[in-house]
Amino acid sequence: MYLDHAASTPLDPAVLAAMRPWLEGGFGNPSSQHALGRQAREAVEAAREQVAGALGVTPLEVLFTSGGTEADNQAVKGIAWTARAAGRGAHVVTTAIEHHAVLEAVEWLVAAQGFTATVVPPEPDGVVDPQRLLDAVRPDTVLVSVMAANNEIGTLQPLDVVGPALRARGVPLHTDAVQAFGRAELCLDDWGIGALALSAHKFNGPKGVGLLVLRRDLAVQPLLHGGGQDRGVRSGTFNTAGIVGCGVAAALAAVDLDTEPVRLGGLRDRLLDGLLAVDGVSLNGSRVRRLPHNAHVAVEGCDGEALLLALDRASVCASTGSACQSGAASFSHVLRAIGAPEDRAHLRFTCGRTTTDAEIARAVEVFSDAVTNLRAAGGGYL
Ligand code: PLP
Questions:
Q1: pTM for the model
Q2: pLDDT value of residue 177
Q3: Which of 224, 226, 201 lies closest to 70, judged by CA?
Q4: Hey, whose CA ends up nearest to atom 13 of ligand 1?
Q5: What structural domains and CATH numbers belong to the chain?
Q6: Are 164 and 192 within 8 A, CB to CB?
Q7: pLDDT at 366 over 90
Q8: pLDDT at 328
Q9: For a pocket test of ligand 1, which of 5, 9, 69 has the largest count of ligand atoms closer than 8 A to its C-beta?
Q10: Which residues line ligand 1 (CB under 6 A)?
Q11: How far is ligand 1, taken at its centre, from the CA of residue 263, in Å?
């Protein structure tokens, strides 16, 4: 039972079918002028149109990257560098619950590039107060970076309030929407989003490909220098098969946007009700402002790694936090930011396109048994 769709999702068969010709035969470089190159280029541009259509932007505003990490780094560093070079200031605002791809990019701007930053903490429910974010903006603020939805506890952030207010003040907003796309509403125009990062493997596409939406009026210095592909911002030979897969996956996610979040929400609610019915189990993050596929719980009297392994032995794949955190002994920065107690197990279950009702029922049984057994054996603490 795979309940770790926030870490990665299975490749959709239709995505694989669309990618296959570009792995098997269509090897031409999309920048080449001959027929093989032109065919590959057409496929890349068709994918760009699919992504643009799914997000309600123009194809010119879609830049393909190697994934969410690169897209976040490009947006944060590129916007900050350009604004400082233009003399607009060197202050950045972000939140304490961002993915490391944003947090560490901001930390590097501060440590190595002479920027200052204000890192706004979330409220105890895992949602950042929009007024606190806006209060952190100063005359020399050149960028605000706020994720659309948190990858660990699944909380939805108030872009609908923050975005328009920032636009009125002329401050660019970047959002890491890696977890939100295909699961929650994203209104780039209405919310005044200047830059937005996505990763294809989070929406049933391939790994190693993602994209940055960069609105037309926003200039960025590139991270990579080279052949000048994609508006001169993202040099490097196009990853034809990956980009084609990303396009098809984005189109599929957009088609399902009316129905899939509702279906996922039903599964998630049954899962949460079952988990929370076990004694000493509580919810992390807001129940209302949360991604429809995410159930994140704290479990008293159990060690997190021990519980995760017990579930794994019973064929339930869950996570103790974000994928990058699993295996690392340190307590998650997101859980710390919301004041979650460190002496409990914290588990994330995330549903997806392949998840069924029967799997949810079985996962609840396995969880309940594992908690009972572990507690009986002393909690599994080392
Ligand atoms: N941002 C968020 C919110 C994520 O969840 C992830 C992946 O876990 C990333 C960024 C990084 O994306 P990628 O794996 O494509 O580099």
A1: 0.97
A2: 98
A3: 224
A4: 68
A5: 13-256 (3.40.640.10), 258-371 (3.90.1150.10)
A6: yes
A7: yes
A8: 52
A9: 69
A10: 67-69, 72, 99, 101, 147, 151, 176, 178-179, 199, 210, 322-323
A11: 24
User: Do 284 and 270 contact (CB within 8 A), yes or no?
Assistant: no
Distance 68 CA to ligand 1 centre (A): 5
Strand order in the sheet with 141-145: 62-65, 210-214, 195-199, 173-176, 141-145, 91-95, 116-120
Q: How many CB atoms lie within 10 A of CB 139?
A: 9
- Which residues 6+ apart lie within 8 Å of 59 measured at CB? 45, 48, 49, 51, 52
CA-nearest residue for atom 9, ligand 1, is 68
Residue 174 has a CB neighbour count (10 Å cut-off) of 31
Please state the rounded mean pLDDT for residues 358-366.
Answer: 98
Q: Judge contact between 230 and 64, C-beta under 8 A.
A: yes
| Structure confidence at residue 380 (pLDDT) | 83
- Looking at the annotation, which residues are catalytic? 324
Long-range contacts of range 155-158, CB-CB < 8 Å, 24 or more positions apart? 155/97, 155/122, 155/125, 155/126, 155/127, 155/285, 155/286, 155/289, 155/290, 155/291, 156/127, 156/180, 156/184, 156/289, 156/290, 156/291, 157/95, 157/127, 157/128, 158/127, 158/128, 158/129, 158/130
Other Cβ atoms closer than 10 A to 224 = 15
- Cα of 378 vs centre of ligand 1, distance in Å, is 35
Ligand 1 nearest-atom number relative to CA 322: 8
Q: Which two tokens stand for residue 377?
A: 């054996």
178 alpha carbon – ligand 1 mean position (Å): 6
CB 318 within 8 A of CB 349: yes
Give me the pLDDT at residue 322, please.
47
- Tokens, residue 141: 């603020």
Pairwise CA distance, residues 145 & 164, whole Å:
14
Work out the angle at residue 305's Cα, subtended by the Cα atoms of residues 301 and 308, and round it to the nearest 5 degrees: 95
Structure tokens at 167: 């636009």
